[in-house]
Specification:
The complex is a heterodimer of chains A (160) and B (393). Chain A is globular. The relative contact order of chain A is 0.13. Chain A is 21% helix and 12% strand. With 160 residues, chain A is α+β, with helices and mostly antiparallel strands. Chain A has 4 helices and 3 strands. In chain A, strand 2 and strand 3 form a beta hairpin. Chain B folds into 2 domains: 2-169 and 336-342 and 354-388, Medium-chain alcohol dehydrogenases, catalytic domain (Quinone Oxidoreductase, Chain A, domain 1); 170-332, Rossmann fold, CATH 3.40.50.720. Chain B is built from 14 helices and 17 strands. The longest helix of chain B is centred in the C-terminal third of the chain and has 13 residues, at 337-349. The two termini of chain B are 14 Å apart. Classes of the chains: A alpha+beta (160), B alpha/beta (393). The A-B interface holds A 42-43, 45, 79-80, 108, 111-112, 115, 118-119, 122-125, 127-131, 133-139, 141-144, 146-150, 152-154, 159 and B 1, 18-26, 29, 31, 67-74, 76-78, 90, 92-94, 97, 105-112, 124, 133-136, 141-142, 144, 146-147.
Chain lengths: 160, 393
């Protein structure tokens, strides 16, 4: 356990974890250093209201709503909103590296969901690396027929 | 379609690979007209960049014609002639909004790899390792361009393919080195490396007002090109002591700005090279940072060093003492091309930047292996090899 020690000798109260209006810890977690309780965080270049337009968690984080705790707060310097999440409960399966190696690390799932949520909020899509066949060809064989145009979105073929 | 693929250490192969398609609404497909070799490819080929996989399509510096656009693409239409920035960036995250496009948060799909290796994930890049997103490269008949509105730029009518091609990577890299290296009117600027990036950094320094520019390399033919096309001074590291030469040329001060455009595969004949090479061959280190060491040692007190060359891992014998005690500013980056390409295309249209002479060789895809060998071994006075994916061969 890492206790925060301040010069004024009032460290204990702080170390037990004050929280700001949004429930965000303002002092180190008393279990600080324990990977099981550490928050995964991304900074989204959007305001809180943009990120939670109806007060609901955005996708794909929303799908994990019963499995994660979520915190938001404004990022300093106009950098947007800090979006944090961590698995609920203390039983998160295998510890640390073992969980990572077996692909059984819920923190990776949370981290991936946070990244995807950020990408969707900032760019409107989750970038596909393009290593698998494309999901849609507007003009059949890409590039060979010269099909498609800036108005391609007007047609009624399904996107994804 | 046919594409040039990484086939293992120091091996490339022309293979049949699946045609690219639209994966996201902001994608477009470009029929590649020209794709050029880059010095950083040599790091990939040599196996010094982790997370390469056999079959990965190489190439990141290219120009072509739009043949297909996703429904959310607004700035491009089928038929547009475009140059595509080698770095894949979203244009909308905080980093992109600051003009730090190669630090984009959303340009890679494999953020976890680089978060672990480097602490944070940079933007993606075409034809690089999976550490940079694993996006298929441009040495191919067609290429998919993610975030097309952000990363592709229509080439002005008066600018030839041969010139605009270098607006994809080499020209913005060079400009960034000079601009973020803080070149000011009256400065003396030294550039390590007379490849395309180094020469375009030298030209950029001149355009930003440098009074004298000194280009340093070990290949006489490259230095001769820089003298002939840019009018810069040159120093051949094989013939003279670079530190002494630069001190003498700058009244004992050292250059105001030093730009390193060599990267991790620096070549030399001295004991430092043998030391670095041995460590690299033993896989103890991936880098040979001799030009970085030289630049920091040569730079004047309070001066600026910009590292343009590619590095991926750790280096030792880094002259931290010289950097600290001389009060240097040292910066580095993958290129923030989206910030510079429109301006560079305008300068190309005004003939302020001419790049055609850098394309010393033109080959069809089928001869890519020979092209890379010539490029790596610096034979036949090679500076850059331009591949034409649709040329017969």
């Amino acid at each position: 356990m890492a206790l925060a020690v301040s010069a004024g000798g009032v460290a204990l109260g702080r170390a037990l974890g004050r929280r700001d209006r949004d429930g965000w810890p303002t002092t180190p977690d008393p279990a600080g250093g324990d990977p099981a309780t550490r928050w995964e965080v991304v900074t989204v270049n959007r305001s809180r209201t943009d990120l939670l337009p109806a007060g609901e968690l955005p996708e794909p984080l929303a799908r994990l709503r019963h499995a994660v705790q979520v915190r938001l707060r404004p990022a300093p310097g106009g950098k947007g909103t800090e979006l944090a999440a961590r698995p609920r409960g203390s039983d998160i399966g295998l510890p640390g590296l073992a969980a990572h190696l077996t692909g059984d690390d819920p923190r990776l799932v949370v981290r991936a969901a946070l990244r995807a949520t950020k990408q969707l909020a900032e760019t409107g899509q989750v970038l596909d690396p393009g290593r698998t066949p494309p999901t849609w060809h507007p003009s059949g064989a890409p590039g060979r027929t010269g099909g498609g145009s800036a108005a391609a979105g007007d047609d009624d073929r399904r996107w994804r | 379609m046919r594409a040039v693929c990484w086939a293992g250490v120091d091996r490339v192969a022309v293979e049949d690979v699946p045609d690219p398609g639209l994966h996201d609404g902001q994608d477009m497909i470009v029929r590649v007209r020209q794709s050029v070799t880059c010095g950083s490819d040599l790091h990939l080929l040599a196996g010094h960049v982790p997370f390469m996989q056999a079959g990965d399509v190489l190439g990141h510096e290219f120009l072509g014609e739009v043949v297909e656009v996703g429904p959310e693409v607004r700035r491009h239409r089928v038929g547009d002639r475009v140059v595509v920035c080698s770095v894949i960036s979203c244009g909308r995250c905080w980093y992109c909004r600051q003009g730090l496009y190669s630090c984009c948060d959303n340009g890679t799909a494999d953020a976890e790899l680089t978060e672990r290796a480097w602490g944070s994930a940079p933007a993606g890049c075409y034809g690089y390792s999976h550490a940079m997103g694993g996006f298929p490269g441009s040495h191919a008949e067609y290429a998919r361009v993610p975030f097309a509105d952000q990363g592709a730029f229509t080439v002005p009518e008066g600018v030839s393919d041969d010139r605009a091609l270098f607006a994809s990577d080499a020209a913005p890299s060079g400009w960034m080195g000079a601009e973020l290296g803080d070149v000011r009117p009256g400065d003396v600027v030294a550039v390590w490396g007379a490849g395309a990036v180094g020469q375009l950094a030298a030209r950029s320094a001149m355009l930003l007002g440098a009074e004298r520019v000194i280009v340093i390399d070990r290949h006489e033919y490259r230095l001769a090109l820089a003298e002939q096309h840019l009018g810069v001074e040159t120093v051949n590291i094989e013939h003279t002591d670079v530190q002494g030469e630069l001190r003498e040329a700058t009244g004992g001060r050292g250059p105001d700005v030093c730009i390193e455009a060599v990267g991790a595969q620096a070549q030399h004949s001295g004991p430092q090279f043998l030391y670095d090479q041995l460590k690299q061959q033993l896989r103890i280190s991936t880098e040979r940072p001799m030009a970085v060491r030289e630049a920091i040692h040569a730079c004047r007190k309070g001066g600026s060093v910009f590292i343009l060359g590619l590095f991926v891992g750790f280096v030792d014998r880094f002259p931290l003492g010289a950097m600290m005690n001389k009060g240097l500013t040292v910066r580095a980056a993958q290129q923030h091309g989206q910030r510079y390409i429109p301006m560079l295309l305008e300068r190309m249209a005004r003939d302020e930047i001419r790049t055609e002479y850098l394309a010393t060789h033109r080959l069809p895809l089928a001869e890519a292996s020979q092209g890379y060998r010539m490029f790596r071994e610096r034979t036949d006075d090679c500076v850059r090899v331009v591949l034409d994916p649709h040329a017969p061969g």
